[in-house]
Amino acid sequence: MAMRITTKMMQNTSLRNLNINKSLQEKLTNQMSTGKKITRPSDDPVIAIRSLKLNSSLDKIDQYYEKNASDAESWIDLTMSAISTVNKILTNDVRNNIISANNNYKEAEDRKAIIKNLQQAIAEIYSTGNADSAGRTIFTGYRTDMPLSLKEDKTEKNVITEQLTNAAIDKMTFVRTGDLKSINEGNFRDKDTTEYKVNTEDIYRFRLAYDNVDISPKLDPATGEAMKDADGNIIYESNVEIGFMTDAKTDGNRAVISTSSVSATVTIDTVALPNEAVFDMNIDGAITSGVRVKKGTSTTMGNVTISYDEDGTIKIVDGNAVPKETASIGSKVTKDANGKSVASFDEKFKTSLEISNYYPTGSDDKAYLSVVGEDNADKITYIADTGELLLGANIQKRLSELSSDTELRITYEKTNWKKNDLDPVHYFYTERTTKGKNGNDRVVNYNENFLVDPSANGKQIIEYDIGNNQSIRVNTTADEVFTHDMGRDMHEVIEMLNEYDDLEGCLNTVKDMIKSEKYDGDDLKKLEEHQKAIEETLTRVGDKIKKRTQELIDDCDGYFERAQLAETDCGSRGSRLKLIQNRLEMQQTSFGELVSENEDADYTDLVIQLKSIGMTYEAALSSISYVMQTSLLNFIR
Amino acid sequence: MASTFMGLNISYSGLVASNAALNTTANNIANVETVGYSRQIVNQSASAAMRAFAGYGCIGAGVDTLGAERVRDIYYDEKYWNNNSKLGEYDKKQYYCAIIEDYLRDDRGTNEVKGFMTIFGEYQAAMESFSTHTGEKDFALEFVGKAGNLCEYFNILYNNFQKMQTDVNDEISIKVDEINSIAKEVTLLNRQINMIEVGGNTVANDLRDKRDLLIDQLSAIVDVKCEEKPITDDAGKETGMMQYDVSIVGGQSLINGYSYRQLECVPRQSWQKVNQNDVEGLYDIIWTDSGHELGLGAKNARGELEGLYEMRDGNNNEAFNGTVSGVDVENRTVTIKVKDDYLKDISKSTLPLTNGQIVVGGEKYYYDSFSYEKDASGEVSYTFKLSEDLTKNLTTARKNKIGQSAYVGEQINYQGIPYYMEQMNEWVRDYAHHFNEIYGVDGATDFNGDDRTGDIFFTGDDVSTGNQFDLNVSLYATSYNSVDDAGYFKLTAGNFNVKKSVQNDASTFATHTIESDGLSKYDILKELKDLSTNKDKMVFRGCDAQSFLICLMGDSALNAQSANSFQEIYGNIEESIANSRFSISGVDSDEEAANMIKFQNAYNLASKMISVLNDCYDRLITQTGV
């Protein structure tokens, strides 16, 4: 038998069905009014979660496309225009003027013009290096708050370490002029022409990155007065060091270091002998084992001194070698993961050669002559105002024989800085003494990592993210475009032209004196000898200018090529960026579509559904009204 | 032979029967809209026939009206109650899950609601812009501001969850009151029903309907079991009275005939917490008479109360538990070795840091603090310092507890409010920890060139002191004390904040290592950026850091979806059982209309019979033989 159905049941069921219908309608109208497929995550967790993910991806693309990529674009554009300015100056001003020097050095007017032009060109190139993007200098890597070249003169002690190879040794021509330059009516009789045999010497040298480096008179510790040599000349000194790096064959707490006559194995045993270094020495074949040196002390064995400094540096000063050699290596005592002390050594040790002579200026022939000749073959001379290290023949030979990848380190100090000097912190390991916040001197070390890993030299690369795991380099670092050599080369041209100028001045003085007919006899003869000597010198200096400028034109082409390479690199990054921007734009659109596809409601579909539900709704309403209204009572009379 | 006047009696009995039927029909019609009313029918049977000692044998003696009785099937009632409890549970879960969904909302477009994904997205964008403009102060300011927003988002979310816990707790108290009042009413009805039914002839139809309706209501709140058995007298004879018993929550007696038990909500004191994130004053439900807990944790417990309880305390089966490995009677400490991975991970810890309760070998103790120890082999043990306050602990745990189990809070296999709070805390702790590790790296330098080695950026506000935590105990620490140390275990989504000094001066934000390398170096920022998306740097439930909301929204959406679908299923079942009940007990107006006519006719006929007989007697007495 069929189930008993009461009126109430029918009413309830109908009402419930009506309610289901209504809730469907509500859902659809909600979708219509919000335009979204779901109103709460539980409607469809898959859509909800996918929507979160897609929207977050879209946000990232927006950030990459609208912010990062356009920031990168403006940075790269700025860099490009700065480099092309440099290139223009290099070709139009620098190169042309050096060619002009090569051709027209004999003309006083031309010399003047060339000197002026070159001075301007250097200033312009180096100040172009200070280009900035919204206040951030663009060629200085992470140091966007520091200009590339100094904006004003200043006095600040910087200890600069240049890391080079023996390829940096360069041969210069030195024209020996004696004291001809100072000739005048008063002193010409005293000058002995035979003394200044005019001749030309080839001298090997390192040209430092800077001129006007530090030097000071050596003071007598007893009197506090400047010391003088036998001829009564003041003796100078400076903190300069030249050395080369050698593999220390380290093995845990042990390292082998050597000089010409000494070989030593150094051990730091943190367990048995903490705070001591133990040396096994071999001095010219004589073996002494187990020499113990306490931290902060030193021991002397004949001409050899070994020491263990407070900062952990271990040194062997070899007095037997000519020139005197110092081998040094850094050591460290650290705690390992288990709290045990362990000693370790740097991988390389440095062999420093003693500097023989210090000259404040190169205008004195003595400075250059100090490395000329067999007697001076083991000498190294430091000239402060020209910023040069001259090498005797043996030293040059010794350094040239080192393998071409052996690192040479030259450390020197510079305190006086001129406007447009390149700031060394962008190029070298530099210890700079500045004023700290409390007004006290404070030493800041720049680029310590260069010492550990010379290959990392100067690369402070700024990269912007412009995609997932995709970034683009936006900056060009100073070393790719701006070099110290540029300025030094141009200065050399200027100096040579000045030298020529000076000599020409002397020649004119002598000529005038002869012309004045005031002199006769021996005087005249002397003057004529002088004239001959000066003319000879002028020819030689002229030859030097001719030869050197020819080299410098090649150098200049090198700088141009270098800058152009940087420009090309920058340009290719720019075009890569354009491509990526293009792709990001496409991604933005397609992700937008995905988001919409995932979560946006389909109106056509909705309208049809709503219509059909509306019809069901009306049908339900009329059936309920029928059920509710009629009952048997209606028919009982 | 039969009595001459017998016909009159027979007719009268018909008249009475029809009258009763008509009245019952009238009652049915009158109660057609009464909730819980069962239709009644009049039971009647033919009276015992009389031997007439005549050739035609027996003669019918009319009709006996036995009484009106409701039409009801207890089988459907039980089914209804059973289902109603489940429906009640999911009703509550559905309601609160929808609220959780709203809290975790993150919508774009016209109805924008900024949720985690949006806020974290803005924070990431600010970090990205900062890294392309490192060294520019306004970008630092923007970033620090967005980081503050992120913290605030968590603070608000945490507070919302706490507020919701308070609401659920209040509702629990209301439901307990309802149980108490229903128990009282049912007991009263038991007494009245028996008074009417004693002797066994009458049925208290309307009172029974009323009682069943009350049980309907009770079944929505808790699972119920009803039993009715006859009361016998000393001789073992049935008295017609019935003993009506009701038990709830897995068979615990609530009503026993004329007596009932009461439940009581006892708020937990501030030193009786079982979860670090719980609000104060959560109710424990106990039986007033025995003091025992109601035990909603029982497996078969159902109903709204269960739904509320799971929502309030549901910890996804991740409560503290372990085995006692040591007891120090003198110092009042208990050491407990734990096995579960979630107890070995500081970021997942939900133990109250102070003033918690712990059950050791079946006995409840209150502790002042605890310390955490991880040995070299990775075994973890917790040592609880039991309070010496006599109002808290009368005695301390003895050595005989060693080897027994201990727990703090019950294992509740539902993702309720505590679960979400734990998840928030876990993310906040993990993220803050990894962020700070990168941020305070050796040589970290800020805008001003000042060293920030070991500094932290994200921290928490210490409400009790007004300072911020040092967070000096790493997430990977092998030991800490919950009071003496200020590690990441103190950080919650509620107190999460950016370090004040950086908030006040964004230029103290560390962006890179090695001061001399320059202002625009962004190595720290780069690592920090990576932290959001690199799973090697931070994993949250197998996903990267930015997927926090995806995980949590997934939980809440699935919980809500399951609550919705169960609610719908049990709703449908309820509908169909209710229909079945209606089918049997419901009043049908058509049927009653028909009955009305039917019984009217029967009445009319019976009365006609009397007048016919009256005529017969008239003929016999006044005209026959006269």
What's the tally of helices of chain B?
11
Radius of gyration of chain B: 37 Å
Largest sheet features of chain B? 6 strands, antiparallel, barrel
Which percent bin holds the helix content of chain B?
40-55%
Distance between the termini of chain A: 30 Å
Give the strand order, joined by hyphens, for the main sheet of chain A.
Answer: 13-14-15-16-19-8-23-3-24-25
- Categorize the overall geometry of chain A: elongated
Shape of chain B: elongated
Provide tags for this entry.
heterodimer, A: 637 residues, alpha+beta, f41 fragment of flagellin, N-terminal domain, ten-stranded antiparallel beta sheet, 27 strands, B: 626 residues, six-stranded antiparallel β-barrel, four-stranded antiparallel beta sheet, 11 helices, 21 strands, elongated
Mind explaining what this structure looks like?
The complex is a heterodimer of chains A (637) and B (626). Chain A is α+β, with helices and mostly antiparallel strands and 637 residues long. Among the domains of chain A are: 36-142 and 465-507 and 521-600, f41 fragment of flagellin, N-terminal domain, CATH 1.20.1330; 241-353, no CATH class. In chain A, 42% of the residues lie in helices and 23% in strands. Chain A has helices at 7-34, 45-104, 108-128, 365-369, 393-401, 448-452, 484-515, 521-599, 603-629, and strands at 132-133, 136-137, 154-164, 170-176, 199-207, 216-217, 236-237, 241-247, 254-258, 262-267, 276-283, 286-294, 297-301, 304-308, 314-318, 325-329, 331-335, 341-345, 348-353, 357-359, 380-383, 388-391, 408-417, 429-435, 441-446, 463-467, 470-473. Chain A has a ten-stranded antiparallel β-sheet. A five-stranded mixed β-sheet of chain A has the order 4-5-22-21-20. In chain A, strand 11 and strand 12 (286-294) form a beta hairpin. Chain A is elongated. The mean pLDDT of chain A is 89. Chain B contains eleven helices and 21 strands. Chain B has helices at 6-30, 74-103, 116-132, 137-197, 205-221, 304-313, 417-439, 500-504, 523-533, 548-585, 589-623, and strands at 40-46, 50-51, 58-59, 63-70, 224-232, 238-248, 252-256, 259-260, 263-267, 283-287, 320-328, 333-338, 356-360, 363-374, 380-386, 405-408, 444-446, 458-460, 479-481, 496-498, 510-513. In chain B, the strands form seven sheets. Chain B has a six-stranded antiparallel barrel. A four-stranded antiparallel β-sheet of chain B has the order 5-6-7-8. Chain B has a two-stranded antiparallel sheet with strand order 1-4. The longest helix of chain B is centred in the N-terminal third of the chain and has 61 residues, at 137-197. In chain B, strand 7 and strand 8 form a beta hairpin. Chain B is an alpha+beta fold and 626 residues long. Chain B is elongated and about 145 Å long. In chain B, helix 2 packs antiparallel against helix 10 (548-585), helix 3 (116-132) runs antiparallel to helix 4 (137-197) and helix 4 runs antiparallel to helix 7 (417-439). Classes of the chains: A alpha+beta (637), B alpha+beta (626).
